[in-house]
Specification:
CATH topology of one domain in chain B: Serine Threonine Protein Phosphatase 5, Tetratricopeptide repeat
CATH class of the largest domain in chain A: Alpha Beta
Number of helices of chain A: 16
Radius of gyration of chain B: 31 Å
Strand order of the largest sheet of chain B: 15-16-19-22-25-28-31-34-36-35
Number of strands of chain B: 36
Strand content of chain A: 5-15%
Number of helices of chain B: 21
Oligomer: heterodimer
Strand order of the largest sheet of chain A: 3-2-1-4-7-9-10
Structural class of chain A: alpha/beta
CATH class of one domain in chain B: Mainly Alpha
Shape of chain B: elongated
Order of helices and strands of chain A: HHHHHHHHHHEHEHEHEEEHEHEEEH
CATH superfamily of the largest domain in chain A: Translation initiation factor eif-2b, domain 2
Distance between the termini of chain B: 85 Å
Chain lengths: 407, 706
């Protein structure tokens, strides 16, 4: 356990100091960290799911606070919580079915056991389980507290009977943890494989002799374009350089290395070029619940240009980028201002920064992200396929539990 | 058995790996050994003073940690308990080791102490380390730089230090102007001068052969990558105090050991600066608010602080700040936790700490208000620093440049005059020893000046603020007052700025061209020679005396005499003397020693002299490589003979002896003869004495020629 604590602290430090960049890398690190948190977490006999949820939430809160701009962290934490809830639910349902079975068999040799408290207990368990599992969590259950009542009969049972029960229960515990870790592994797999999943759909969207515009650098976009190229589609790519970090240059280099026809343009030339473009494809930093997109700075301008010329504006996003929050949510920090040294040379401009007597001082603003409202987005391509912006809320309902939206 | 062996082998392998991959270590000097921040530093160590609401040392430690430094030694001196307590509670405790010494009064002492500790403690500096002071704010990556340093060290054993410099066009960050000369290809540091040089740079002629880059727009970040030799060099040279003034310049002048210092100019995308004085405190704070130091900015939690939220126009505050709607918060302002701001207050370009309460209709401009400060209604604060716990009663006015130390109370409607420093503690009438040591070495002149100031301060009486106020106004010394506008946080007044710009332009003409024709550049040797011959010049007298004392000490201790060469070298630097002067002074000391030694007859004196010359030939020989220097020795001797009757009969004999011992070459003697030939008859006494000898020399050379 101390091991886990130190890795958590280490990761929190990394997040704080902005040492990890890119949603995918962050998501991957987060989910791997949470997996080790879960596997080291001691689960009490009673109420294992709640213990796991608490543990994950505690770590998750630290992680989110460390870098509130990186929404992928929160997304992944909520996904893991959702997995725990789901597994718990399916286990309890299975247990209920098992109890029914057990009941039937018990009825056969009821003479062998003392079996006085048993039927009563099983009835209580069934009732509690039914209450806690079959219904979606309602306000009432929330107020009543967690379904602890389900465990009360276990403690009241006695003798050899109770021994067999605890053994059974510990296997149940192990089963829950095992299932959760299995689920988390699946999530890791999903995050690792999201590029390929998205790239597979490239052939359906990119056609022969088309001109594609992209802005900044995104690994998803790179894989997407290359996948189309591999399928013998020939098309041209315009890359807007993505000032001030100029990651577009790197993307262009990669694209050329893979044999695509690539042209680099300045960000300010996007509007001039858009009439020759058939489709704009960008990678997102995060996709909000309303279908709005947070992307590299300059994306909104490209989206507006695309709208003006009726060019489809396609956003690629792995499912870990789906954020269940709305952009107007106060805890969503949409942007981060980076160092002005990416724009200006400190050595040359340091004299205008000092607001000496009388003279004005120079302010430099260097935002990292841009927000694109949902009405400018034509299509989202996620690892589960293409979706309309208005469908995002539905996807989010699939991936997250409503309980976890506020952590 | 086999398994155990394998295990052992594995461990050995791992050990050797560890050795090859040295841990990255850093020494943070948590004491600046200056008094620039007084009176604040009387109550709290400088590195714990808040810089945009976060103690300075947190910036340094956070940066070092994220740059991959694995072990940080923090050297504490003043207020060490406070600092140690703070570090223990902070998140750095696992990374940081503290070294405490109360006796150190300079960087030199500190490093010597660390060097001594090495042998006693298990924790120690192994190999290369980063040397910074605890007031450094930076976000530059270090790993690559350290690697560069190591590679260079591998190629060249003598490259023991890499110094980080940064280009900046800003005028007067408060420190003295810096002139550096670097080799444009290898980036080796050739010349370093910080301080008042009136825009004049004296470079050695030899530097101009290869081409040299002279810059005056560089900022020395005081970030050094040092090899372990640096510590032992400090240990060997007990008079090295200041890292730059003594150590760097000492190495540059010292040609025996031949150690080299290299420079590294920071790429424009990274930031580095040091909070040296109140002026740079202001500058660096503004840079932090402007986010040049990203990710070490107030809205990122990098040191366990409460992160603030960044709003429009560069305003940082908490989301639930208690602030009146009518309060006007201007651009570039930071407001800490739990601070209340009243109606109609105007705050701009300022930093307000945590838990402050600010009344209504208060004006705060360009000021730094620390934690738990109470400011009542109608106060006016411009360009001031207000420390923790200060109370400013209604209607008080702080004029620009005021510094209020901890827990001061300013009375109602009181006007604190500009540039004044107020503290609950009385101004120390006698300066502390560290102040002395800081300044004593600059030059003799300054020491005198300072002692004069001391007298003034003793006479000046401290005044209380007001009936209901608490605190003493520290007297501003007149002689320092001139510099006050330079060092305070007030923007430099327009007229001063114009003056400075003019001065800079004047410099520009002289220094603008990278390599001026050598004729224009005064070489060291020339300029000093003329000065040294001037009888009015005291400096040479002092220098000669110092050399003599050093020399005598060395002889007394019967050290290997060669060891005094570095000492004399450092003296030579601090008095700015040419090597000919050293030669003269050393020879003078040797002769004086010979005369002071017991002797009854001239022949005994001759024996004394010859034995000393034989013994110290090496030292003297080091400085008399050139004909000019040899002539200087002969002239010096001539001078001495004129003064002392005992020595005069021996002139020829000793010159002959010097010739025999190869200290003086025949060319030098002949040149001296030629020079003297045209002098007055009275001056020719010794020339006449030498007539025969010179004749012999001439014949000998002619014979050789034929």
């Amino acid at each position: 356990m101390p091991d886990v604590q130190s890795t958590v602290v280490e990761f929190v430090n990394k997040l704080r100091k902005r040492k990890i960049e890119g949603s995918q890398a962050t998501a991957k690190c987060t989910v791997e960290l949470l997996r080790s948190v879960i596997s080291y977490q001691r689960v009490p006999h009673a109420n294992q799911a709640a213990a796991l949820i608490d543990a994950v939430k505690a770590v998750g809160q630290q992680l989110v606070a460390a870098n509130p701009v990186e929404l992928a962290v929160g997304n992944v934490v909520r996904r893991v919580l959702h997995i725990i809830r789901e597994e718990d639910l399916s286990l309890t349902t299975a247990a209920m079915a098992g109890l029914d079975l057990l009941d039937a068999s018990d009825d056969d040799d009821v003479d062998n056991c003392k079996g006085i408290g048993y039927p009563a207990m099983s009835a209580a368990v069934v009732a509690a389980a039914a209450r806690s599992t079959l219904r979606p969590p309602s306000l009432q259950t929330l107020l009543e507290g967690t379904p602890e009542s389900a465990t009360v009969p276990y403690t009241s049972s006695s003798g050899a009977d109770s021994e067999s029960k605890t053994a059974d229960k510990s296997s149940l515990t192990r089963k829950l943890k095992h299932d959760v870790i299995e689920g988390v592994n699946q999530l890791i797999h999903e995050i690792a494989g999201c590029h390929e999943q998205i790239a597979e759909q490239a052939i359906e969207h990119i056609h022969q002799n088309e001109v594609i515009l992209t802005l900044g650098s995104s690994r998803t976009v790179l894989e997407f374009l290359c996948a189309a190229k591999e399928k013998k589609r020939s098309f041209r790519v315009f890359v807007a350089e993505g000032a001030p970090r100029y990651q577009g240059h790197l993307l262009a280099k990669e694209l050329v290395a893979r044999g695509l026809q690539t042209t680099v343009i300045t960000d300010s030339a996007v509007f001039a070029m858009i009439s020759r473009v058939n489709m704009v494809i960008i990678g997102a930093h995060a996709v909000m619940a309303n279908g709005g997109v947070i992307g590299p700075v300059g994306v909104n301008m490209a989206a507006l240009a695309a709208k003006k010329h009726a060019v489809p504006f396609v956003v690629l996003a792995g499912s870990h980028k789906l954020c269940p929050l709305y952009p107007h949510n106060p805890e969503v920090l949409l942007n981060e201002l980076r160092s002005p040294s990416e724009l200006l040379d400190f050595g040359e401009f340091s004299d205008c920064l000092d607001s000496g007597a009388g003279s004005g001082s120079l302010q430099v603003v260097n935002p990292t992200f841009d927000y694109v409202p949902p009405n400018l987005v034509s299509l989202f391509i996620t690892d589960t396929g293409g979706h309309n912006p208005s469908y995002m809320y539905r996807l989010i309902a699939d991936y997250y539990s409503a309980d976890d939206l506020v952590m | 058995m086999g398994a155990a062996e394998k295990k052992g082998a594995a461990r050995v392998q791992k050990d050797s790996e560890d050795l090859s991959r040295q841990r990255l270590q850093a020494i943070v000097l948590a004491d600046s050994f200056t008094t620039r921040f007084r009176p604040l530093t009387l109550e709290r160590p400088k590195v714990l003073l808040p810089l945009v609401n976060i103690p300075m040392i947190d910036y340094t430690l956070a940066w070092l940690e994220s740059a991959g430094i694995e072990e940080i030694f923090v050297f504490c001196c003043a207020h060490s308990m406070q600092l140690i307590d703070y570090l223990k509670k902070s998140q750095w405790c696992s990374l940081v080791r503290t070294i405490v010494s109360h006796k150190s009064t300079s960087v030199g002492d500190a490093l010597r102490y660390i060097y001594e500790q090495q042998h006693t403690e298990t924790s120690q500096i192994q190999g290369d380390f980063v040397l910074v002071s605890g007031d450094t704010v930076s976000n530059m990556p270090l790993a690559e730089l350290i690697q560069q340093h190591r590679d260079r060290k591998k190629r060249d054993e003598k490259a023991i230090m890499t110094m980080v410099i940064k280009k900046q066009s800003r005028l007067g960050i408060g420190s003295d102007q810096l002139f550096v000369a670097v080799d444009p290809v290898t980036k080796q540091l050739l010349y370093y001068n910080e301080g008042d040089n009136n825009g004049e740079v004296c470079l050695d002629k030899s530097l101009l052969d290869t081409g040299v880059l002279v810059c005056n727009d560089m900022l020395d970040c005081y970030i050094d990558i040092c090899s372990s030799e640096v510590l032992s060099l400090f240990e060997d040279n007990f008079d090295y105090q200041h890292l730059r003034r003594h150590f760097v310049n000492g190495l540059l002048v010292d040609d025996i050991m031949g150690y080299k210092i290299f420079t590294h100019e920071i790429q424009s995308s990274f930031y580095a600066a040091r909070v040296e004085n109140l002026r740079s405190y202001d500058m660096v704070s503004k840079d932090i608010i402007q986010r040049w130091t990203y990710p070490y900015v107030p809205d990122i939690n990098f040191s366990g602080n409460h992160p603030l939220k960044l709003g429009r126009r560069g305003i940082y505050r908490v989301s639930d700040a208690v602030q009146s709607r009518s309060a006007d918060i201007g651009a570039s302002t930071v407001i800490g936790y739990g601070t209340k701001i009243g109606n109609g207050s105007k705050i701009c370009k300022s930093v307000i700490g945590n838990g402050c309460s600010i009344g209504s209709n208060v004006v705060i401009q360009g000021s730094y208000i620390w934690n738990n400060v109470t400011i009542e209604y109608g106060c006016e604060i411009r360009n001031a620093i207000v420390c923790d716990g200060v109370k400013i009663r209604a209607g008080a006015v702080l004029q620009p440049g005021v510094v209020l130390s901890f827990n001061v109370v300013v009375g109602q409607d009181f006007v604190v005059p500009a540039y004044s420093k107020v503290s609950l503690l009385q101004q120390p009438t006698k300066e502390d020893s560290d102040e002395e040591s800081e300044y004593a070495d600059i030059s003799n002149g300054t020491t005198h000046l300072l002692s004069g100031v001391n007298n003034l301060q003793m006479e000046s009486k401290t005044s209380e603020l007001d009936p209901d106020g608490a605190g003493y106004i520290w007297k501003v010394c007149d002689s320092v007052h001139d510099a006050e506008w330079k060092h305070s946080i007030v923007p430099i007044p327009m007229e001063k700025l114009a003056d400075m710009a003019q001065a800079m332009d004047g410099d520009g003409i002289e220094d603008g061209s990278v390599v001026p024709p050598s004729g224009e550049l005064k070489s060291d040797t020339d300029s000093i020679n003329t000065d040294a011959n001037d009888p009015n010049d005291d400096d040479y007298g002092y220098f000669e005396r110092e050399v003599r004392e050093t020399f005598l000490r060395a002889i007394e201790e019967d050290n290997n005499v060669d060891h005094i060469t570095p000492l004399i070298n450092s003296l030579r630097f601090s008095y700015d003397m040419a090597s000919a002067d050293c030669a003269g002074a050393i020879f003078y000391s040797m002769m004086r020693l010979a005369m002071d030694t017991q002797h009854n007859s001239t022949s005994e004196l001759y024996r004394n002299a010859t034995s000393i010359i034989t013994k110290c030939k090496g030292v003297l020989g080091f400085y008399v490589k050139q004909i000019d220097e040899q002539i200087e020795v002969i002239m010096k001797f001539e001078e001495m003979c004129q003064e002392s009757a005992a020595l005069s009969p021996l002139f020829v004999q000793i010159v002959h002896f010097l010739y025999d011992k190869d200290v003086v070459q025949e060319d030098a003697i002949l040149r001296w003869g030629e020079e003297k030939a045209g002098a007055d008859e009275s001056d020719k006494v010794y020339l006449n004495q030498c007539e025969a000898f010179i004749q012999w020399l001439k014949e000998a050379s002619e014979e050789e020629d034929s």
